[in-house]
Structures are given as C-alpha cells and as structure tokens.
Specification:
815 residues; 6-stranded parallel beta sheet; 39% helix
C-alpha cells in the first residue's frame, strides 16, 4: 500500500500568497531553451515528443527543465517521472521543484513530490502512490521495480507500487525526464525506456502518450551522425544546445581554472582494491576514505594550499569526507587567520558513534550556510566567512553563487559526484559569481593506474580536449615506467624493447556504463585502449568482427553489471583468434581491453573512435640513444637533462622524473654499443645454474590463474566448494615440452586433473583443435570411466563432452 507520509505535499495557494523568496530570473539561453521545448513537445503533434536538452555544467539544466515543467506540464496536471543515474542528483532536482512550485499557475492547488532510491533519506519504491505528481527516482531503482516477478499468498501476480503508478497513467499524457541522458543507451535504462520484450515492456510501450526529455552537458554523445540507441530513445535529437564558450563570454559561466595539488600521500593498490576501482569502477571503500580523512599531514597540505594562495582563491568551498576532517581543517585554518566554518550531517558516513555523526544539527548547518552566503550573523551584523568546509552537502542543490574556488580533497571514480562539486563554482559574474573559477584538485600517488574521474574527460562537456590531453598519455607512461623498472631491477640484463613496440601509434576511446549497486547508480566511464604498430590492424579486424556480428552476441554484453569471470571466458577465444597473447598482451591488459571494446560497441551501437598519436615520432628514444652512444658520459648526461627539460615535450609526462628517463636512454644506448661490438645479436648472458624451467607456479600465480578462470574447473564446470578441490594443471605437460607459465596453465578439479594426465587438453578455449572427428564408439569406455557415480549428472555430461572435443565445448546444459 502506498505511503503518503514519505512525500512532500506543497500547498500552491499558500506559496502564491507568500512574498517571493530565492526567485531566479531565467537567462537568455534558458528562455531560448523554453521556446524550443514548447515546439518539441507541442500537444498538437501527432507523435509524442522525445529529445535532448544540452546545457553545459553550471548553466542550469536542472533549473531550466524544472521551471519549464512547472509552467507547461504540471500546470496541466500531467505527471512527471524524473530519472537520475545516482542518488546524488535526486536532492538537487527536488530542491528545484520545491523552489519553482510557486510558478505553477492556477487552478492547480497542490503538488506531491516524492524522492525514491535505496538511500535511507529517501522514500522506498514501495511507498509510491498513484496520487504522486512528481516521482524523482534513481534509474536503477526504477529498473528493478518496473517488472517484479512476485506472487501473493494465493499465487496471484503482484504489481509493484511503481508499476501501479505507471499503469494509472497508461492512457494519459505523461512526462519522463532522463538526467545525464548520454547514458540512456545503457542496457538497463534503454530497456526501461523503450524495451519491447513482451515480459519486460518499456515505458514508451506501456504509456504511448509519454514524452521523453533528456538532459545532458555532454553534447559529443549526441552527435547526429551516430547510429545507435540514443537516436532510437530520443527520436527528435537535440532540441536545444547552449554554447559553453558563448556563455563564458557573456559572463553567465565562469571560466574554469583547474589546479592540481599533490597531497604527498603514497598508497599501495592490492589486487582487491584494483579490481574494485579499475574493473568494477566503484569508488574508494569507506575504510580507505576514513584513513585519508584522518591523515593530518595530508590535511595540513590542504590548509597550506589555501593559505599560500588566499588572495587568488578568495571565497572557497572545501569538500571533505568526514566530520572529524571538517573539524580539523576548520581549526587549522582559523589558527592561520582564516575565517572558516564547517557543515556536515548524517550523510557523513562514519563508522563511529551516532553522537559523532550528529555534532552539527540541521539548525546549525542552516545558520552557517546562511552566514557563508550573506556574510551576516544571526543578528544581521557583518560576519563574513572565507571558507566553508562540508561533507557533500553542497552537492545537493545548495546555491552559493559568489564562490571563487572549490577544493576537491580526494580523487573519485564518480564523474557525477565530481561534476556536482565543480558546478558549485561555475556561476559567472552575471549569475552572481566571478569570471574565473578555481577548481583545486588534490591527488594522492597511487601505485597503479586508476581511472579516476577527470574534469577534462567525458565527465563534463569537452571530451575532445580530453582525448588530446594527458589522460591517454598516462597509460603510455605506466607502461614505459614498467619497462624501465624491469631494466633497473635486472641490473641492465633486461633490454627495453624498441621504440616501435612500446610507444603506441594511437588509442581507441570507449564509453561504457557501469552499475554500482552499493551506490544505487549507473555511471559512464571513458577508457582508452592503446594500439601499437604491430597490433593496430589486429584491433581493427576484431572491432570489425564485433560490429558486424553484434546482433548474434549474448545480450548480456549490454548489461551495466557484468561478472568478470564470465567476460574472461567470453573473450579468451578471441585473444587467440585475433591476437597473439605473447606479443599483444601489453601489461596483461588484452582480455580486459577486448571486453571493453565489446561492451562499448554493444552498449552504444557504434565502433569506438580511434585517435592517432600524431606526435609519436618526437619521443623516439632509440634516436636519442644513438646521439649519446658516441659521446662522453658527462656530455650524455647534459644532453639528456636538456632534452628532458625541453618546453612543449612530454618526457616528464611519460617518465615522471629525469632518473627514469636517463635509465631508459642509457639502457638502449648500451644495447646499441653491444650490437656494434658483438654484431647484430646481443651478447649471450651466462648460463644460469638454476633449473631451466620451474615445475610449478608460485602460490600467488596459482591464485591469479584461479581468479582468471572464475574459480571453476574448466573441464566439468564445478565451482570451488568443500567437496570440489581446484588444482592448477599444465595445458601442455612438462614431460611433453610444456613450460610453467600463466598462459600454459588452467584450473581443473582434482577429478578432471587426474584423467587429463599428460594429454594436451586446452579447456581455456572453446574451439576444438581436432583435425578430424573422433570415433564415438571407440571412446565409450573412456567416457564411462570419467563419469563419476556420486556426482551431479550435469557435471559428468559437461566433462564427457569437453573431453571428447578436447576443449571447453559446453556452453550450457538445460536439465
């Protein structure tokens, strides 16, 4: 039964009778947007409107959409479903509806608004009432509640409250707003909107008169030349697009000035954390966030950064992560003569006591925020604040137009959260702000490459600058530093490969939506796949294959939440069919890169863009090595120092410091000298007294193989359990010339491993290596022996079939 208590009901007559408060006058670009929205959603049109409104971050896309809906949709008693990909965005939309409700003309007298997500501060989906006028809901919650396979106590189908809400508007006009609309093509969202499966019909089919309005700050995703799901969802394309540069020129928006500041903190990234951040694209776990927030050396750097540039930064918002971090920063800033205060609340997730989480009451927060905005205390006396420290509260629609600077005190994988924080400073002079906004980004030194959200990436509006910017080059840098480290650690015996093999010729740019159930969010990430001189053509062939055959691939590829082991199993055959893992698996990323390419193509319906590294030849370290091979060590050192310091070049981006750069160049130079001395072949290294080949992998390597294979026997499909013992088997036995390596290893249960013996059975691939068919009758005895009496029949059948074809031939067995 719906719950009318967990919603806000506004009495519009009372609001209209009160003096206008916090009433915003639309700018010209917003008035232009209203005009285009009126044309796109004209009730006289034979077909329901469906298009996208594009406004850059800070230009008020939420305000624009809500104000227009109040005047032209809610005024006609047409209900609104507002979908957002993360609960961060719900409160901002709610605040705009609350402020703009007074503009709804008579005769409408009430407005019922409900926020719905998995967050405890919002209503549950089961609370939705058919009398709600505006339901502001996270997309994942809507997806999971539209079609619920449930029955009551007598076995009759049950309808979810959300489904009842939709059904009650089946024959009436209805409005669906999709915030962050560039992610709408993702599997779950597009099926929610336009799904056509009989058992899971989308909103367009369930409500034929529903209108779709998409909101985004990312126009590159709405390129009309793209033939993908986006154009099927938003059939009218871009309704209106405001030009960011023009709004900056008009002083509606401030020009962002991005400033990076190191925290001095170095952090290790184990495989578990790397998997969470780089593969699942979840944010930092709470325990690590707490460690960073409690690091006072790190916090002192934040304080020092403000004090050192106080005149430049001016009125500043600092986004912190914990109440105790707010208290510490406030205290240290005040000690340095800075007028500062802090606001936080229960949203500050803290493992400590409830008392600690509630050191600031709602009344305290409102008073401090009002003082920061107005510069006046409760008695109306001048009491300006220079700095306001908060825990995410200002991402929820709090409006302080005259902020000069925001401090973002840690990295995040969430582009939505990052954009919300940046947006707090982007109001231009005409909007009560300034001409330039300082965005100070504090970063830690993580020892592995993490895809942190970046304001110059797809997280905001200008992805072209991102493609040509530093981010893809970070991938190159990590690989080059790995090569230098190998050389240094080997004492010079490891030769860095030639420039043509380790410097990419370009990169493919993928855009993929990932789900994070813990945050009730679906978010897009931009990722880059490096292409090299020796494998660019292989990537092209693979991409052509996927693009041509995408309709026949498993539909699961489009899902936002995919199992790593499932993807690994799917791409494994392609690694061998289109690539040579030995030479193409640069940094162990090949299978992950192929999975990303497939997900991009299936989710977006188009091939990924390719960008060539046009300046690649400027960084030919082989040529520099030739230059220093015939000069004295002192002259070589001076030459390398000058080269490293040349303005406009990216040596510092790639090698980070002079020591690594010099080590790489010297290593190659030594190799050239050896070739001249000994001929084309490099000198032979002394024969080691150690055995030529290890008999087994290390425990860490065994764990890596099991994780790669999904902790599953690749022969019979048994999962690791109390009764199933997994072992690592050589694909080609040592006795038969096989080596002990990750590539020559596979996970088998003890039963299957026993039967394999010294046979070369590769269960990692699903293509049979047999040159001709086996004699079925001749193998009956073998099949009987490898079928175990006391085990599940599915497991026995899987083992028999895979054994017969000598590969992982079984896709699925239906009992």
């Amino acid at each position: 039964m719906c719950d009318s208590r967990r919603r806000v009901s506004l009495n519009l007559d009372e609001l209209r009778s009160q003096p206008a408060q916090d009433f915003r006058t639309p700018f010209q670009h917003q008035l232009d947007a209203f005009e285009h929205l009126n044309k796109a959603f004209d009730p006289q049109r034979p077909q329901a409107g469906s298009g996208i409104l594009v406004l850059p971050t800070g230009a008020g896309k939420t305000f624009t959409a809500v104000r227009w809906l109040c005047n032209h949709v809610l005024a006609k008693n047409i209900k609104v479903l507002w979908l957002a990909p993360s609960f961060y965005l719900l409160d901002q939309a709610y605040s705009e509806f609350y402020r703009s409700a007074v503009t709804i003309p008579a005769p409408k007298t009430t407005l019922n608004i409900r926020r719905v997500s998995s967050s405890p501060s919002h209503a549950r989906a089961s609370d939705i009432c058919t009398t709600d006028d505006v339901v502001i809901m996270t997309t994942p919650t809507a997806i999971s509640n539209l079609h619920v396979n449930a029955v009551d106590e007598v076995g009759q189908p049950l309808q979810s409250a959300f489904n009842k809400f939709i059904a009650s508007n089946q024959d009436t006009s209805f409005f669906v707003v999709i915030d962050e609309a560039h992610h709408a093509p993702a599997y779950g969202c597009r099926n929610l909107l336009i799904g056509e499966k009989p058992e899971k019909l989308g909103l367009r089919t369930l409500m034929p008169q529903a209108q779709f309005l998409g909101l985004t700050a990312t126009p590159t995703y709405t390129d009309p030349t793209r033939r993908g799901w986006l154009s099927e969802i938003f059939r009218d394309g871009i309704i209106y697009k405001a030009d960011k540069a023009k709004l900056i020129t008009q002083k509606v928006l401030a020009r962002p000035n991005y400033i990076e500041r190191p925290t001095g903190r170095e952090l290790d990234v184990d495989d578990t954390l790397y998997d969470r951040l780089a593969r699942q694209h979840k944010d930092l776990p709470e325990e690590i966030i707490a460690i960073l927030a409690n690091d006072n050396n790190r916090n002192n750097r934040i304080v020092d950064a403000y004090v050192a540039h106080r005149d430049q930064y001016g009125k500043t918002i600092i986004f912190a992560d914990r109440w105790f971090q707010c208290v510490y920063l406030k205290q240290k800033l005040e000690e340095r003569g800075v007028r500062a205060d802090a606001i936080y609340s229960k949203i500050d997730v803290d493992p400590g006591s409830a008392e600690a989480r509630n050191k600031r009451t709602t009344t305290d927060n409102a008073r401090i925020l009002r003082q920061f905005k107005t510069g006046l205390d409760e008695a109306g006396n001048p009491a300006p604040l220079d700095v306001l420290i908060n825990v995410r509260m200002l991402t929820e629609g709090a409006d302080v137009p005259d902020v000069d600077t925001v401090f973002i005190t840690r990295q995040t994988t969430s582009s939505i959260l990052l954009t919300q924080m940046i947006g707090r400073a982007l109001r231009g002079e005409k909007a009560g702000g300034s001409n330039e906004a300082n965005i100070v980004l504090f970063y830690d030194n993580w020892k592995r490459l993490i895809d942190w959200a970046d304001p110059l990436e797809g997280g905001t509006e200008d992805s072209q600058s991102a493609v040509k910017g530093h981010y893809p080059l970070e991938y190159i840098s990590v690989h080059l530093i790995e090569e230098v480290a190998k050389s240094i650690e080997s004492g010079g015996s490891y030769q860095i490969p030639p420039f043509t093999r380790i410097f990419p010729v370009g990169w493919f740019k993928t855009d993929i939506a990932y789900a994070d159930s813990s945050q009730d969010s679906i978010e897009g990430f931009t990722e880059f796949i490096m292409a090299y001189e020796h494998n660019r053509h292989k990537f092209d062939a693979f991409i052509d294959f996927i693009a041509t055959n995408k309709a026949s691939l498993p539909e699961d590829w489009a899902k936002e939440d995919l199992d790593e082991a499932w993807m690994q199993q799917q791409v494994e055959p392609w690694c061998y069919q289109y690539f040579s893992p030995e030479e193409d698996d640069m940094g162990g990323r090949l299978s992950r890169d192929l999975a990303r390419l497939v997900r991009h193509i299936i989710q977006n319906g188009v091939k990924p863009d390719y960008h060539s590294f046009e300046d690649r030849d400027l960084y030919d370290l082989d040529q520099i090595a030739y230059q220093i091979s015939d000069i004295s060590p002192r002259d070589a050192q001076i030459y390398l120092e000058n080269e490293f310091a040349k303005p406009g070049l990216l040596w510092k981006t790639f090698y980070k410091d002079l020591t690594r750069f010099r080590a790489a160049a010297q290593n190659i130079s030594n190799s050239l000298i050896d070739r001249e001395r000994y001929g084309n072949a490099p000198p032979k290294t002394p024969v080691s007294q150690e055995p030529r080949s290890r008999s087994e992998l290390t425990e860490a390597e065994k764990e890596q193989v099991k994780r790669r294979d999904g902790y599953t026997c690749l022969c019979c499909g048994a999962k690791k359990s109390r009764t199933v013992r997994l072992q690592i088997d050589h694909i080609q036995a040592l006795k038969m010339g096989g080596e002990t390596s990750l590539g020559n290893s596979q996970t088998l249960c003890s039963t299957c491993n026993l039967f394999v013996g010294v046979n070369t059975f590769n269960f990692r691939g699903n293509r049979s290596p047999l040159l001709q068919a086996k004699d079925l009758n001749a193998n009956i005895t073998n099949f009987t022996s490898i079928s175990q009496r006391e085990e599940d029949s599915t497991r026995s059948i899987t083992r028999i079939v895979n054994w017969f074809y000598q590969c992982n031939a079984v896709y699925q067995i239906n009992a």
